[in-house]
Design a protein that fits this description.
Helix content is 47%, strand content 8%. By secondary structure, the protein is mostly helical. The chain has one domain. A two-stranded antiparallel sheet has the order 1-2. The chain is flat and about 65 Å long. The N and C termini lie far apart (57 Å).
Length: 134
């Protein structure tokens, strides 16, 4: 098992946790760390080596892990809104809702992976009409 990038105390800095949420956070922190490590590996980066080379990368990994856990825990909170968007119609009656985290899964946003330097914009050119030797 690899390193866990954040602690329950780090999560509690952003929001107070009930006993049940503390238990969830302990499990989710391990899962989120493994998921982040795998996500970086998919893009060809070794996150543990990146952290060993730069302390700042470790802080960013901790922040991303905490944010992911908070998103997953907020789904189960009694005071959180489960729906972010609602739509209703009239006579023919139609309704639709967008849920906060319908799958209750851990996930990372693209901008969070970009903060780690994992997602980088690429540029290049391709000669469509030949190689330019004529």
């Amino acid at each position: 098992m690899g390193a866990v990038y954040a602690t329950v105390e780090d999560v509690e800095l952003f929001r107070g946790l009930s006993d049940r949420e503390r238990t969830q956070a302990e499990v989710l922190l391990t899962s989120a760390s493994a998921l982040l490590r795998r996500e970086c590996g998919d893009y060809g980066f070794d996150l543990d080596n990146m952290i060993a080379e730069s302390e700042d990368v470790g802080l960013i990994a901790k922040d991303i892990t905490v944010k992911s856990v908070l998103r997953a825990i907020s789904v189960y909170a009694e005071d959180s809104a489960a729906v972010t968007q609602e739509s209703q119609a009239g006579l023919g009656y139609s309704a639709s809702w967008s849920y906060v985290n319908a799958g209750q899964a851990l996930y990372f946003l693209r901008n969070e992976l970009d903060e780690l330097g994992v997602l980088r914009q690429r540029y290049g050119a391709l000669e469509v009409y030949g190689d330019g030797t004529k």
